[in-house]
Fold this protein.
Amino acid sequence: MEDVAAGIRRKLIPRLLAPVVLLHFFNALDRSNLSFAAISMNPELGIDPKAYGFGAGLFFVGYLAFQAPHVWLLTRMSARWWIFGTVLVWGTVASCMSLIHDVASFNLLRFLLGVAESGWASGIILYLSRWMPRRYRAGAFSAPMLAIPLSVVVGGPLSGWLLSMDNPLGLSDWRWMFLAEGLPTVVLAFVALAYFKDDPHQVSWLNDDEKAFLVEDAAAQVGQPQSVASWPALFSSPRVWASVGLWFTLLTGAYGLIFWLPQVIKAAGGGDPLRVGILSALPWVGVGVGMAVNAWHSDKTGERYWHVAAPALLASAGFAGAAYVGAGGLALVLLIAGGVGLGAAQGAFWGVPSTFLTPATAAVGVTLINIAGSTGGLAGPNMIGTIRQATGSFALPVYAMAGLLVAGALLTWAIATLNRKAAA
């Protein structure tokens, strides 16, 4: 049976995971390119650090408020049409970011982009869970998240180049960047509609034995002694809420990097937009490497908890060390090390809730964990913006993020302990 599971995985990587990663790349790019636009957009429109942090965080108000109904739609309709509608709407709003003309329009469009993207991350996890054997889910769930560091590693220099070029429309550099990076998403929505299928039974490249294995694999998970098998148990489960707290700590660190790192590098004498984009990408190379390697190793060994806790501690040490030493080459090395730890912890994270969520509770459980945990995306940018404006320093909020990552490591240990007790 292990050979069947491995065969399914080999088929899914090029046929399903790679296209999902491509869509997730544009999803991450369309939300994170704001950090590069801000270099020239903020002075042009008179947006101060506090207002920028507030507007960046408004994305997550829409994201959190509409995630549950968005995922509910996925459980009630064709998955391919859900993917099409989601990608089309977020691509349209992302393109409209080029029309921002004041703080109010900035806030409105960031909120609407959050609404448009609200169910994507949770929905894709649920979609992939229909296809991938449990043994390989850490790698499958981390594959779309790899698009986040890719959106900075590739998107950073791309955004810097777009900001630096003489665009054919004569727009402000940041307006051209939003338009050039948003419109391809609209095109991809129609490609996705033609390509994706609703479930494994509709494809010809899985044989009957492989399809039957996926049905049996899902049924076997229901019988696990440590499973949370009902909705009431889900909302009262300490493991669910510990997972919420853990995801919160990881996302607070990630979005702190996404929305503020280019400005930190620019303030430290980073140079022109292209150079800022390249330097900003380096810690995200670490994120991507940590994410891919750690998820692969977690699947190989079957261990989930230390694969999250230990990297969280590494991320904490790296970010705190970078804040302590200040600007310079050593700080960049420490940021890269912190990125490796953060990516590794995120890459293995969804393997932890999958140890106790069943097919019956996965839709609600994943959505609950992602909604509540994603408040880190709202808290992180606002916290950094407020403290930055009050103190003129990035050090204090970075230390706070480092402390949260230590708390995340402790929460991982708590989930492991609770799982052992439930299975006893």
In short: The mean pLDDT is 83. The radius of gyration is 21 Å. The domain at 2-423 is CATH 1.20.1250.20 (Growth Hormone; Chain: A;). The CA atoms of residues 305 and 416 lie 6 Å apart.
